[in-house]
Sequence to fold (337 residues):
Amino acid sequence: MRGRGLVVLVAAVALSAAFLANLSLGASSIPAGKIVAALTQFDDTDYDHVVVAYQRLPPALIAIFVGAVMACGGCVLQGLTRNPLAAPSVLGVTAGATLFVVAGASVFGIGEAWQGLAAIGGGLFGFASTLVVARMAGLSRDPRGLALILSGAVVSMLYASIATALLLASPSRRSDFLGWVTGNINHVYAERLFDFWWIGAAGLILLMLLSRSLTLIALGPEKAASSGVNVRLVSPLALAAVVVSSSAAVAICGPIGFVGLVVPHIVRPFAGDAMTVALPANALLGASVVLAADIVARSAFAPYVVHTGVIMDLVGGLVFALIVKRFYLSSGPRRFA
Fold:
């Protein structure tokens, strides 16, 4: 257990380094001393302090929030479904949340204050749609769970296409949501973070409180029940926490895909099946990954800036293919653990 605790410590160090690098790197580099001074002794007459506080800190906090929420969501979904490809972006959650926000703004004209509620409703609708389609496709007769993943892919493509069509039909809304819909971590969404962060935080806290029970459920519902875990209560609560917190992340900066798929696979060999260790490690490493992706998005194609969601989709797509090859296309049996 001491070795597994070291995983959390290493992830925390990685997050600290990624956070400092994110605040330091950009059009102009800012030394660490200036960053610390800007955070602890802010001077509004110092240009570097203003850049850190108003331009770089808000997107860094958004990246931390989104990475932590999505990575923990993927960890829980993979554990409960026993499927290595399960993640909020794969099971229709992010696509449903995106659709409801775009539809709410385009069709009903809802403001930012209601978009968080629309995202949560859309996330629940997208996840429920995936389960319905998977059941119709014969999920119970598919021990590998491929029907669930294919259903999520179909639902996600459908809802993403509808959201795109709505934006194309409304030029004014298109300009408002063009960056957001591709996953844009930007300081302009600081107010959204202020409005919706507590929803994701509440979801993460609930998952941490349920971590011991989730560990037992991941080992098998029967074993968990024999250990006194109320499986019929804990599983829906955990799934609801994942969907709600992931949807809140979408409401802030749009869909940031695949971090919930990739990070749990990085953490699992070191943290094992214990959710009490895996969830904190996923939160810390997920935040680090999105911070790093944001640095790449801002720096790799300078002077042009690419949206962070695009970088995550590029990397996540490659990892998605590798996971499919390992668990579904390899000749020998693979155990997901």
Notes: The mean pLDDT is 89. The radius of gyration is 20 Å. The chain is about 75% helix and 0% strand.
